[in-house]
Write a structure and sequence with these properties.
alpha/beta, Rossmann fold, 2 domains, two-stranded antiparallel ribbon, 8 helices, binds magnesium ion
Length: about 230
């Protein structure tokens, strides 16, 4: 199987440090500015607004807010990357899945600054563990990224793991299995509109990344029983 992992909120926690990273970036670029904690809180609020679900906008590319296209933003991303923590020993899990014969890829959205996602994957030491890295949202849309995946890997079963299940709606194909990794900071957006989950076929929910091993076993059993 192809196992595709999202990055933020799935393999790593980079949310808890958003505000602190803004504070550090403000210190560096605007040390004269009063009330830095206030500004850091405000920027965090705006940033989290961009994390919210955008239902039905399937082909949109990422549009960045003005303050995330600056040197200040670069520092913010870098500070955020430095504090980012790997979830559930995800690095060990990736190795285990590869040992089991799966193709493990990174399948995530570009950050507001081009090239930043790759850089952050490298900073946390995950980049080189993947068999392939597909980044959408800047040069290619998510739908185009999915097509690219099919061109590269044919119709093999794709297990798509993401903490934002609204991304799954209307996407994928009959050989796609969707796995929602329940990550509290983004799960709260789902709780507000839980009925949307009904629109996702083949949906599995996990609260620990290692449960993916059980999901894979279950998929094998289900698919085998369909074909017999
Ligand atoms: Mg995510």
């Amino acid at each position: 199987m192809i196992i595709g992992f999202d990055f933020d909120g799935t393999l790593v926690d980079s949310y808890s440090m958003i505000e602190e990273a803004f504070k550090r970036a403000l210190e560096k670029h605007y040390s004269w500015l009063p009330f830095k904690s206030f500004w850091a809180k405000l920027f965090t609020k705006i940033e989290l607004h961009f994390e919210k679900p955008k239902y039905g906008r399937h082909n949109s590319k990422v549009k960045s807010p003005f303050f995330l296209r600056t040197k200040f933003a670069r520092t913010w991303f870098e500070e955020r990357a430095k504090m980012t923590e790997i979830l559930d020993n995800a690095d060990e899990l990736i190795k285990k899945l590869k040992e089991d014969g799966h193709t493990v890829i990174s399948f995530s959205a570009e950050d507001f600054i081009e090239g930043m996602k790759e850089k952050r994957l490298r900073i946390v030491g995950l980049y080189n563990l993947f068999d392939d890295v597909i980044i959408f949202g800047k040069d290619i849309t998510l739908c185009e990224a999915f097509q690219l995946l099919r061109e590269r890997y044919g119709d093999e079963i794709f297990v798509w793991v993401d903490d934002k299940p609204w991304r799954f709606i209307g996407r994928g194909d009959e050989n796609t299995e969707f796995v929602w990794y329940y990550f509290p900071p983004t799960a709260k957006f789902v709780e507000e509109k839980r009925e949307l989950l009904a629109a996702i076929p083949h949906l599995h929910v996990i609260r620990d990344l290692w449960s993916i091993l059980d999901v894979i076993d279950q998929i094998k059993r289900e698919r085998a029983s369909i074909s017999t």
